[in-house]
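Researcher: Next entry in the queue.
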Amino acid sequence: MDLLYDNLLRAYAASVAQSTLDTGAKALDKWPFATETVDSDDDDDDDSFVPTAEHFDYLEIQGPLPPLGKRIRVRITGPADLQLVVLKSDTTLLAIPELTLESPPSTGRYTILENFLSEMRDALRKSFSHFPAGAQKEEFRGCLDKLDLVIGGQAECTLLLDDPIGLARVVGEKKLPNVSVQWYERTWSQREEFGLNHPPQADQQFVDEEGIAKLSELVAKASKIVFLTGAGVSTESGIPAYRGNVGLVGTKNIWDQFDPRDEQIENFLADENCRARYWRMHQSLEHIVKDAKPNSSHYAPAELARCNKLLAVLTQNIDGLYIAAGCPPDRVVELHGTATRVRCFTCKKLYSNAEAFARLRKKQTDAWEALKAAAAAEGLPTDTIDEPLVAPYCDCGGPLKQDTISFGQPLEEHVLARARAVVKECDLLIVMGTSLTVFPVASFPTLGFDNQVPVAVINRDETRYDLHATVRINNSTCAESMRQVLAGANLPCS
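Model: Structure for this entry, 494 residues:
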């Protein structure tokens, strides 16, 4: 898998900075590969190591899986280090923290370190050619230049291999002073992702009516409540979902009416017609979003904030209805941005929706008049001219786009970091209106499970965490559920 350029400017993911544990030698002794990777001081057979299919692909392992994850740090100080032989399994993440580079897990490889770095550079160069001009592209260029120096043996850096399965290795790693190995306990999400040590089901689960009563009790006791919400909350306010169930709207979802390829950031930046279709779609949805009103799923967090019980709302929705309902803006984390404003992709200037749509309508009118004038000059009829496809632009000439995350755009790292931090801090996590299928947001509940925090899931459809939640409510809307929960906790809710 290519290194995506949208990982370039992210700070190195905090999720790999887990607490380091000891080598876990007793557990590792029971695993068939342990003598190859964890023996202490005596020389092992690393120099004659020959990888097999089970080293590259954890699904090929016939015996017990490694009990711990493995993190290897290689300090690259010169040409000799570039010749180290490295095994990367299909579950290994590669990163160079100094360059804020991260390459997600892909097909396993067994080759010298220089080849891994060269492959990362080739993928970066491919992405660089499509990267929009601006300050970020210059940072991108600087990153490529530094990587060239490292590969040429003229600069130092640290290569991190993080493998939750524990298969990664550097041949001779125990004898190399610039290589350090750390074994760590896997997180809840890693165990779930790889089918390892399957997380236990909830000791006792409260469902539907019993779930309402239990959640009322939990809300009454909690003081740091976090909500994680998705499209199911917005559909109850009349906003169609992008995909799947359209909720209460009774109309098609958005991707049944429009082409999702126009929401792909690469297409948006490269194609004027794509930008025009993007704006036609959002113009057709303008009145729906503008006229939508908050429901009890939005008012409940606002009321909990007034009672000093709300830590944060983490929402995948872009409609701004939590803030409209009275939630303090500093406690609302809009994971996918907001459709309540527009941003220039080049200079980052912000515009109100009203101003952006006014620019769009003026450009449409001007283009239409120009087409009619041209037709009249040719003696052609003017009443059959199709509405022109146009897009609005900033004063600087850059393309305007709603201040949301499109396909292919990374979520802002500081937003993700804050979201993870509040889930780790909360004493109750309420998941509403989301089937938790899109990552990384879908992994947030695992942070609560890791901290043994009660998790409540309110959703019509099944979610990946239904068996593990303390409370599961499937037989009611999010709005009605929250009305009943707050009433049971003796708190008002609209």
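Model: Residues 81 and 113 are 8 Å apart (CA to CA).
Researcher: Noted, moving on.
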